[in-house]
Design brief:
This protein is α/β, with parallel strands linked by helices. The chain has eight helices and eleven strands.
């Protein structure tokens, strides 16, 4: 590749034809800004957007959750960048909508079961994030010292990652929006832990569900399996998502843990870039984690 650029640091974004001879632009801007900028890119420049601007296909749903005008026709040029479930489309894509952090953990935990066609009834997701998952805007209740001594739920039934989770699950299999998704503030600095509860049409053993998940992710280097439970200490500062699955008759639970800033954001963006340019998916992403 000739070069990369982060348009957060471009002095003037009125004319993006002046960004230089680059192959790909990463957008890590507040919601609503990439909507205005990406259509101005030169036609030879690919893009990966880390905001929510291009994740939702339905205009009315997007405007309900993001309070922004939908991208319209531009949206059709975007591929949803959940690497492990959308590899082939990502390889051929010009524009990528990088998934949200909660959405990444939840979808990696749910996709194998939804794709299997074995689910029955409502899916319940209880997801928690650390203080670095609150974005760049300062607020009293998201300040790290405040969160480190507290625990609370937020955005019940209204979190902006709900529609992208539902949209991708509908594409994965027999999913009819039977989802309850709740988010909580976890007293840690970084990391996401998602507990996903499902019911199945038939009785399954632990071995059954583990075999299903291992087969689904057989070619996914960055998905690892834990015996009892993932631990966010073992994924922080890495691009791994650790999953464990357990069954009791027709009840199945999948736990997923990842670093919201790496696999949940920048790491997955690089993973997608690697695919877009025919590089090894792991390039630049295998490094030592942060535990202890």
């Amino acid at each position: 590749m000739k070069g990369l650029t982060d348009l957060s640091f471009v002095p003037s974004t009125d004319d993006l034809s002046e960004i230089g001879d680059v192959d790909i632009a990463f957008f890590a801007l507040p919601h609503g800004q990439a909507l205005q900028l990406i259509p101005k890119l030169p036609p030879n420049v690919k893009a990966i957007d880390l905001s929510g601007d291009f994740r939702i296909n339905d205009a009315a749903v997007f405007e309900q959750y993001y309070k922004q005008r939908h991208a319209g026709e531009v949206q059709s040029g975007f591929v949803y960048g959940l690497t492990e479930t959308n590899r082939e489309a990502i390889r051929a894509a010009k524009y990528i909508a990088n998934p949200g952090c909660f959405a990444t953990a939840t979808l990696l935990a749910l996709s194998p079961m939804v794709s299997s066609g074995l689910l029955d009834g409502t899916i319940v997701v209880d997801a928690k994030t650390g203080s670095s998952g609150s974005g760049a805007k300062a607020a009293a209740n998201t300040h790290h010292p405040q969160r480190m001594n507290s625990f609370y739920a937020y955005k019940p039934f209204t979190h902006q990652h709900v529609p992208e989770i539902a949209q991708h699950l509908r594409q994965a299999g027999d999913f009819k929006d039977q989802l309850v998704f709740m988010t909580h503030s976890l007293p840690v600095s970084r990391g996401i832990f998602a507990s996903c509860y499902m019911q199945t049409k038939v009785n399954l053993t632990n071995e059954d569900v583990l075999n299903l998940f291992e087969h689904f992710y057989a070619d996914s280097f960055f998905v690892r399996f834990a015996e009892t439970s993932p631990d966010i200490n073992w994924v922080k500062n890495t691009n791994f998502c650790d999953i464990s699955v357990h069954s009791s008759g027709k009840n199945v639970v999948a736990f997923a843990a990842l670093d919201n800033l790496v696999k949940g954001a920048a790491g997955q963006a690089v993973q997608n870039m690697n695919l877009m340019f025919g590089l090894d998916e792991k390039t630049g992403l295998v490094f030592t984690g942060g535990n202890p």
